[in-house]
Design brief:
The structure holds 3 protein chains of 3 kinds. Chain A is α+β, with helices and mostly antiparallel strands. Chain A folds into 2 domains: 222 residues, P-loop containing nucleotide triphosphate hydrolases (Rossmann fold, 3-Layer(aba) Sandwich); 143 residues, OB fold (Dihydrolipoamide Acetyltransferase, E2P), CATH 2.40.50.140. Chain A is built from 9 helices and 20 strands. In chain A, α2 packs across α3, α2 packs parallel to α4 and α3 packs across α4. The relative contact order of chain A is 0.11. Chain B has 2 domains: 83 residues, no CATH class; 173 residues, MetI-like (MetI-like fold, Orthogonal Bundle), CATH 1.10.3720.10. The chains are: A alpha+beta, B mainly alpha, C mainly alpha.
Chain lengths: 388, 275, 263
């Protein structure tokens, strides 16, 4: 592979086609409640995969099954082609960075990182060499003798990563590893984690509920909800081509509107017929239409494909977030131009801003911002009441 | 005003608590047999006590029993706490913890007589000629049993507080379950294990009622010796023994408190730096 | 390590907790020849007055402990934190001093020819009265009442007093409506820790009762020393049941009480 220095940012594919971990028809129940429902997922060598979903979606359970802390009720877990369903965690070439780091409080930084090597009865020289190397990698040289409780969250995080990587696992599992850090530190650690992964060239399986984190770091994102995989794809695929209303809503902001596919490349919703780039649906099939807030242009009412009244505006720094009432459905629009509340505006939507999805069990549950503006209304009511 | 009332109240209560004990200490230095008239200062009763072989044997017995029952109950109790924490069947867990707490809730006298009848049955069942032959073991079993709930009470909260994450991390890094327990969990629940052991040790040292019903004729502990001394007419040697015990307890309490004071001082300093 | 780690303990508990209690029950329902009988249970009615007296004295002693101990715990908990440690140590010292020594020390003080009567040249007859036994119980077990209440009161948020007065409580209503209910769990465990050893004591009544009256503990001790195991077992069984019932009732009410305070 040749390094290219042009300015087009394209995800660099570093993973191979070898399947390291392969989950086949995994089912898991707790106290009669289904936590995982037929999970099928393979993870390739050197791939950075993120399991993304809201809490309770089964992502952590999936990770724990790969790590060996849970056994599936049904299905097969393969590691490099061999079944490992009942292999205990200590016999797997898989290590984990735990949510709250789980550093050993009775050991200092050096001994925490040396722990796996001591178990293997490595020589003192080798241990020193490898721990020093690891500390250098996570930029903690000189911290050897510190007690782990005196470290900051970010430093503890690095120790946990060094400890998990020192025995050269094939796969590193990371369970919401940045959840306890503040925003700024989280951003830095995201970059650093990605760098570490590319430098040492092993598979990372990352669990998070933060969609931004997932999109920015991963080769592949697995969106989960209700114990099922909703979509597997590259970050761009997931964002631009969500498979159903859940994915569209969970990843970024979306207006999800009921529509009818009149024919290929033509869809009708909100009382208007739009050109689009989608095809292959039945004639007059009911569909969910996704329009991202940033893909809508605000124009004069007479020039708009749709018109509506602004019900709320809030300033978000880079842009304004505008809630527009179009025939009773509240849309969210992001625009760099200010519009005043109560003002009538027109919306212009390009064909490539429209994405059509098949109806799913999540249809009608997401993508309407009316509750959002209701809250604002109530808040302003309270304020005005207090003024009197 | 209210402050003074509080002070006076504290003083009165502590005076009532301490006057009897201090009187006893005072009369241990009396030069006559009287426990009511202080006639003069002497170490006579201490000399008498130190020349009494029984006192030393009782002291030795008490220490042997306290150390061995504390050790045994700490080992069994710590393992039990870990096991109870891992139990998944709820009703079984409840049954085990309730049965464990029985010796703690039950009056000592009932525990004592139940052991007395139990060991009588053991003697009968195994046709043991002389109860004295199993006497020490009977004492050890009885003391270990009433110490167990206190060890578990000290260790179990530590284990639940620690949670599963460290053990899972240890397993993940290559420990067998046993290694994970000894290398990671045990060092981190040590404070609970130690306080459980200390508690077991002191409870065993202090026990009179249960020992009274279980003790064989050849194994007397200090509380039993004190009891037999109070039955005599001349008692200042018992005063001397009691004084020694009080002084020991007092010293140990001060030492452990000094340690605590130092710890809190350190913590305060640390907190101060941060702030 | 799995729940197997509890196996030695379960084995131990069955053998040395459950089995001895079963043997007590077996003795209670058999005669000296080991044949089933209800005579021991029937004989219990002779001991009703003793049960009554034991309950009377231990209830009074527990009540006095609460009355004296609550203010003490409260004062300690609200005093300067530096002094608190010293006060608690002063309470612990008698607690860790053997019960026999403590009991004997008050006997030596209060006896007819004891220290007090000697130095004041008086002839109070104290030892041998109910009052002396009650005093002995209070003296011996007061720290057991104070410590749990202290632990409980000292955990109450310092702002609770301010909050209560802010909401219109005066000192008395703050105590009765806020602090007392919040320290209920401490009171419950204090009451348990005083009541159980009081009702079952035999040593205090032996020394301070001067042999003039018998409590249930003395009766049990006498039965076993004289070899009347079966009757002794029956009395022990009844006492155990009485205590377990009262503990159960207390727990039940405390849970209800707590439910009332914190909905």
């Amino acid at each position: 592979m040749k390094e290219n220095n042009n300015n087009i940012v394209k995800p660099k594919v570093t993973y191979t086609d070898t399947k390291v971990v392969d989950l086949k028809h995994i089912y898991k129940q707790y106290d009669g409640e289904t936590v995982l429902n037929d999970i099928n997922l393979y993870i390739r060598d050197k791939e950075f995969v993120t399991l993304l979903g809201p809490s309770g979606c089964g992502k952590t359970t999936t990770l724990r099954i790969i790590g060996g802390f849970e056994t599936p009720d049904e299905g097969t877990v393969l590691f490099e082609g061999k079944e490992i369903n009942d292999l205990p965690p200590n016999k797997r070439h898989i290590n984990t960075v735990f949510q709250k780091y789980a550093l050993f409080p009775h050991l200092n930084v050096y001994e925490n990182i040396a722990f796996p090597l001591r178990l293997k009865k490595k020589s003192e020289d080798e241990i020193r060499e490898r721990v020093t190397e690891m500390l250098k990698m996570v930029a903690l040289s000189g911290f050897e003798n510190k007690s782990v409780s005196t470290l900051s969250g970010g430093q503890q995080q690095r120790v946990a990563i060094a400890r998990a990587l020192i025995s050269h696992p094939r796969v590193l599992l990371l369970d919401e590893p940045l959840g306890a850090l503040d925003l700024k530190l989280r951003k830095d650690m995201q970059v650093e984690l990605k760098n570490i992964q590319q430098r040492i060239g092993i598979t990372f399986i990352y669990v998070t509920h933060d969609q931004e984190e997932a999109l920015s770091m991963s080769d592949t994102v697995v969106v989960m909800a209700d114990g099922e995989i909703q979509q597997i794809g590259t970050p761009t695929d997931i964002y631009n081509e969500p498979k159903n209303a859940f994915v569209a809503d969970f990843i970024g902001e979306s207006n999800i509107i009921d529509g009818i596919m009149l024919s290929d490349y033509s869809v009708r919703f909100a009382g208007h017929t739009f050109k689009c780039l989608d095809k292959g649906f039945d004639k007059n099939e009911q569909v969910d239409v996704v329009v991202r807030p940033e893909d809508v242009d605000v124009v004069e009412p007479e020039r708009g494909m749709l018109t509506g009244q602004v019900s709320a505006v809030s300033f978000k720094g880079v842009h304004y977030e505008i809630i527009v009432d179009i025939k009773g459905f509240k849309w969210m629009i992001q625009s760099t131009d200010y519009v005043a509340p109560e003002q009538f505006i027109g919306l212009y939507i390009e064909p490539d801003a429209i994405h059509i999805m098949k109806k799913s069990k999540y249809s009608g549950m997401f993508g309407d911002y009316s509750s959002f503006s209701d809250e604002l209304d109530q808040l302003s009511d309270v304020e005005s009441a207090e003024e009197f | 005003m209210r402050k003074y009332a509080s002070r006076i109240y504290l003083c009165i209560i502590f005076a009532i608590l301490y006057i009897p004990i201090l009187t006893l200490v005072l009369f241990s230095f009396n030069d006559s047999e009287s426990t009511a008239n202080f006639t003069g200062f002497s170490f006579e009763w201490y000399k008498k006590l130190f020349s009494d072989e029984n006192a030393f044997i009782a002291l030795r017995n008490t220490l042997i029993l306290a150390v061995s029952s504390a050790t045994l109950s700490t080992v069994i109790g710590t393992a039990a706490a870990e096991g109870i924490y891992k139990m998944k069947t709820k009703w079984f867990k409840t049954v085990v913890t309730s049965v464990t707490n029985v010796p703690m809730m039950n009056p000592d006298i009932v525990t004592g007589v139940s052991f007395m009848l139990f060991f009588a049955a053991v003697v009968g069942f195994f046709k043991i000629a002389d109860y004295d032959d199993i006497g020490f073991f009977a004492m050890l079993i009885a003391h270990t049993t009433f110490c167990l709930p206190y060890v578990i009470l000290n260790v179990l909260p530590r284990i639940s507080e620690l949670g599963n994450s460290l053990t899972e991390a240890a397993l993940d890094l290559g420990c067998t379950p046993a290694e994970a327990f000894f290398k990671v969990k045990l060092p981190n629940i040590m404070p609970g294990v130690i306080s459980g052991a200390v508690m077991a040790f002191t409870l065993s040292l202090d026990d009179f009622v249960i020992s009274y019903f279980v003790s064989p004729s050849n194994f007397q502990t200090l509380p039993l010796l004190i009891y037999s001394m109070t039955k005599k007419t001349v008692k200042p040697d018992m005063y001397a023994l009691s004084t020694l015990i009080i002084v020991t307890v007092f010293t140990l309490l001060i030492l452990s408190n000094l340690k605590n004071f130092k710890n809190t001082d350190k913590r305060k300093k640390k907190g101060g730096k941060k702030a | 390590m799995s729940s197997i780690a509890a196996a030695p303990h379960i084995f131990w508990a069955v053998l040395f907790i459950v089995l001895p209690l079963l043997i007590v029950i077996a003795y209670a329902f058999t005669n000296a020849e080991g044949i089933f009988t209800l005579d021991n249970i029937k004989a219990l009615k002779d001991y009703v007055p003793i049960f009554g007296l034991s309950i009377e004295l231990s209830v009074i002693a527990t009540f006095i402990c609460l009355l004296v101990g609550y203010p003490l715990a409260y004062i300690i908990a609200r005093s300067n934190p530096k002094h608190q440690a010293i006060y608690i140590m002063l309470l612990m010292l008698p607690m860790w001093t053997n019960l026999l020594i403590r009991t004997y020390s008050i006997m030596a003080l209060l006896d007819d020819g004891g220290f007090i009567n000697t130095i004041f040249n008086t002839s109070f007859h104290i030892v041998g009265t109910k009052g002396a036994v009650i005093f002995g119980m209070v003296y011996d077990f007061l720290p057991y009442m104070v410590l749990p209440i202290y632990t409980c009161v000292s955990k109450i948020d310092k702002h609770m007093w301010e909050v209560a007065s802010d909401l219109g409580c005066n000192t008395i209503t703050t105590l009765t409506k806020v602090i007392l209910p919040l320290s209920l769990s401490g009171i419950i465990s204090g009451v348990t820790m005083v009541f159980v050893p009081s009702i079952s004591t035999f040593y205090i009544s032996q020394k301070l009762g001067g042999g003039t009256f018998e409590l249930i503990g003395d009766t049990i001790e006498r039965q076993f020393v004289t070899g009347a195991y079966n009757v002794g077992a029956a009395i022990s069984l009844v006492m155990m049941i009485l205590i377990l019932i009262s503990l159960g009732l207390m727990n039940y009410f405390s849970e209800e009480g707590e439910g009332g305070i914190i909905p």
